Amino acid sequence: MLIALVEQKLVDAKDAARCDDYCCPACQQTVILHHGTRVQPYFAHKSLGDCAVATEGETQQHVVGKRQLAKFFRGWGPVTLEKILPEIQQRADCWVARAHPVAVEFQCSPINAEQVAQRTAGYRQLGVYPCWLLGERFGRQKIGWSLIDRFASPLRGWGLCLLFWDVGRQQIRLVHHLYQDATGTYGFWQSWVSSLAELEAGNQRRLWVPPINVRQFRRDLDQKLLRATPALRPLQETLYLHGHHLAGFPAAFVTQHVTLPLFGQGLLVWRAIVGAWIFSLRGEVLTPATLGRLAEEGFALIGGHLQAGRFSGTAELARAQRDFMADLTVAGAVIKVKDGWQINAEPQWATDYTTWLKNDEKKLG
Hints:
Oligomer: single chain
Radius of gyration: 26 Å
Helix content: 25-40%
Number of domains: 3
Largest sheet: 4 strands, mixed
Number of helices: 11
Distance between the termini: 70 Å
C-alpha cells in the first residue's frame, strides 16, 4: 500500500520517515515502511490479520502505475490514492473527486469474474463510476470473452472497449469498438492515449470492418465438423433433426452485419439454427413472441451471452432478430402479415459443404 496513518494523519510512503507508528487506514493494524534503493517505497502489514481491503503482494508495476494514474486523471478533479470506502469494504487505487466520482482500478494480478463484478457493484452502490485499467499480465492475453466479460465497458467516443495502462510509456492502450463479425471472429481497433483530452475526444479515425469470406467460413465449419469439434456437435445434431447440414446454410441467411461480442459461435451460425426452426413452422403465423423465443433458444445454443459484466446483450439480440426477418423478407422467404410473418418459400439448403461448393462453382461459370 502507498498510504498509511500516523498520528491520525494520512501519509504517503514516498514522504514517510522510518518509525514504528504507522498503521493501516482500514484496519488500524501496524504497517511497516519499506524504502529500498531499487523499489518504490510502500507500506506492508506487520501481520496481515483480518484486514478487509489489504493489497499485500502487489507488484512494483502496480505501485508505480497507481502513482502514474493519479497524475493522469487529476485533470478530472482532486485525486486520492488508495481511498478507503468502509461502506463497501473496498479500497480504490485512485479516487477522482468530481460531481460523479470515479474509482480507478489498476488490475495487475489475477482476478475472476465474480470478484470483478462484486467490486464493480460496490462502486455502483455508492454512485461511483469504476474505471478498470489492466496491467501487463492482461495485456499479453488474447482478446476474447474472458477479458470482455470481466472488464469491457462502453465509453463515449470509443464504443465497447478495454483499457490497458502501460507503465513504461505512461499511456493508455485502448482496445476499442469491440465487435464480432458474422463468423464469430472478434474484431477491434487499437489506439494509444496520452492525455485526458485525447480520451475525452474519442476516436478520430474512420473505422472499416473487412467483409467476411463466406466460402472459407463454410469450409472451416465443414472441417470442424469432420474433427467432431465439441462446440459444434449440439448445433449439427439440432440441424440433423431438420435434415440440414451446418455448412450448407442457405445464401439468404448470409449477412455482413457485425454485433457486439456476445454471439458465441457467431451470427451466421445463430441464423442457421433459428432459420431451420422458423422454416419448420410452415403454415403457422410467426408471431413476435414465437420469434423472440426461437431467437433466445438459438442464442443459448450457440453459446451466446445475454449479460456481460458491464453491458447487456438484450437489445443486440433483438436487433439481430429484426435484421434477420428483414433479410428474409427482402429475399422473399417470408412475408409480413397482420400478426407477424408467414413463410412464403423455404430457402435452399445444400446437403453438405461439398454439394454447396459444386453448386456455387456452377453458378460462377
